[in-house]
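Methods — Computational structure assignment.
A single polypeptide chain was analysed. Its primary sequence is given first, followed by the predicted tertiary structure written as structure tokens.
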Amino acid sequence: MLLLRKTTFWLALLGLVACGSLILRLRAGLTEPVPAPPIAPATKPFARAIGAAGIVEARRENTLVGVPAPGLIAAVHAKVWDRVEAGQPLLSLDDRDLRAALAPQRAQIAVADATLQRLRDQLARLEAVGDARAVSTEEIKLRRSDVAVASAQLESARATAAQTEALIERLVVRAPVAGTILQINIRAGEYATPASATAPLILGAIDEVQVRADVDEQIASRVKPGARATGFIKGDSAHPIPLEFVRIEPYVIPKRSLTGASIERVDTRVLQVIYKFNNNQPERPIYVGQQMDLYIEE
């Protein structure tokens, strides 16, 4: 019993010493220092500025290239990083069913053309008869009507074939604008639909890019058209990028571009402000889709 009391006494004394040491450390300011951030935050380049977060996109925005009709992808004519001109083929859909239908349609054109030539020859012979008693007026009218019907049938056959040829041409997806292939999300042999949530191909001009900045609606009125701005790519606060004003989009929308910050609100509405800059520094390339911190001068 005596040994138990001594052990309890020393344990209590040790606890008191530990508490006293902790109190002394707190009073002396010996708490653990807050670690510095791994990347220094960007400094505000203007005396008064509005902060905004933005996403880099191709000049004149990213073009999401789709397909005109559901079908099997027969060929992909481009790859990522290819520079393409407007009108250049990008994708081809399977057109075997349309080409199979085109062959009899062209044959029908030949039949209609031959029929028309035969009826025209018959009409010409009748009209060449000089004796009115040998050929009646009604007979000539009937032959002329036959020629008109055959001519209409020929035009109908040609229109049907032309429609099929246009549908075949439509299955070759061409570049709507000149630019660089940013992403390809489909391969030959896969099935594509116009309603797909993911665009088969993304195209954009990236020699000069733009940033779409989101400004909180509560301070949107402080943004002035033509205001100067400086941007910093996320994680690179040492290289400011001067930006050139493009436009303010006069429609406040729900915020869709999220930066991942823990304090970020997702119920915010934002005013989008567009700035552009040259992307011509190979030692520090900037890619479409990167996040950027902006400071807009007030």
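Note: Residues 1-35 form one domain.
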